[in-house]
Design brief:
Blueprint (H helix, E strand, L loop, with lengths): L4 E7 L3 H10 L5 E6 L6 H7 L3 E4 L5 H11 L4 E6 L2 E3 L1 H8 L9 E10 L2 E2 L9 E7 L4 E2 L8 E2 L4 E13 L2 H6 L1 H14 L6 H18 L7 H21 L6
Helix pairs in contact: 6-8, 7-8
Length: 248
């Protein structure tokens, strides 16, 4: 019999896609939703889906996901965000695994979307994420932003996808940047890292060229431009903020 899997999801005000996310992992032995203070219908949706709901004030993405992993009842963890829907092919592939070797981790392709359109090129694609692992051998790192699972052994790719409803529209791509950039700035300040205008310009230009030209983002049309611009802004905004004096 395959080992039981705990699906763990951290969330705050994630009602938009949460019902789909939970329905796609209803087959798991446990579905754990770790909420950090939702004021929308997140808790109602989670409980209606039969999920176990816990609360933890937000600690940063890496620490928050580690907290969710620690709360799970089973060692095999399937980690998803509240805007990530596991497709049927990936679910079937996981259910077919014996999960006998705790050292092996499994990656799943993530298909990122802006609105209803998938971003198929640029630096957002291909995007494979380690999301199925045994917590006795692997776990999320402690990074507060852009967290990742640190594997404890070999990593294998699974068929299927995670459908990632990343942003509602093109404006949302840039609208969500400030809190991430401020978190990056704090980390840069703690390390004493600063950058002048020349370095910032070089980083922005390189980010845009990498995504739009080298990774063929131009094949995505308007979305390719938006993604490349977001890469450029992301490459510089945190560093730029780190060099600013905070307002009184």
């Amino acid at each position: 019999m395959p080992a039981p899997v705990s699906a763990v999801i951290i969330v705050k005000d994630g009602e938009r896609h949460l019902a789909q996310v939970l329905a796609a992992v209803a087959w798991c032995a446990e579905v754990l939703v770790l909420d950090s203070g939702s004021t929308d219908r997140t808790l109602e949706i989670s409980r209606a889906a039969g999920a176990r709901v816990e609360h933890q004030d937000f600690l940063g993405y890496g620490p928050q996901k580690r907290a969710a992993v620690a709360m799970a009842r089973h060692d095999w963890i399937l980690s998803l965000d509240a805007d990530e829907v596991l497709d049927a092919e990936a679910a079937a592939a996981i259910r077919a695994l014996a999960l006998g070797d705790p050292a092996i981790g499994y990656r799943i392709r993530r298909r990122n979307h802006i609105g209803a359109r998938e971003v198929r090129h640029g630096l957002w694609s291909p995007d494979r994420c380690l999301r199925l692992f045994n917590r006795t051998r692997a776990n999320f790192n402690e990074v507060r932003i852009h967290e990742a699972v640190v594997a404890g052994g070999p990593v294998r790719d699974l068929p299927g996808s995670i459908i990632h409803y990343t942003f509602r529209d093109c404006a949302d791509v840039f609208g969500r940047m400030p809190p991430y950039s401020r978190a990056k700035a704090a980390a840069y300040r703690a390390r004493g890292r600063r950058a002048g205008a020349t370095l910032l310009l070089a980083r922005a230009a390189w980010g845009f060229v990498r995504s739009y030209v080298l990774k063929r983002g131009f094949l995505d049309g308007r979305l390719g431009v938006v993604v490349a611009l977001s890469v450029a802004v992301d490459a510089v905004l945190g560093l730029a903020l780190a060099g600013e004096d905070e307002a009184p």
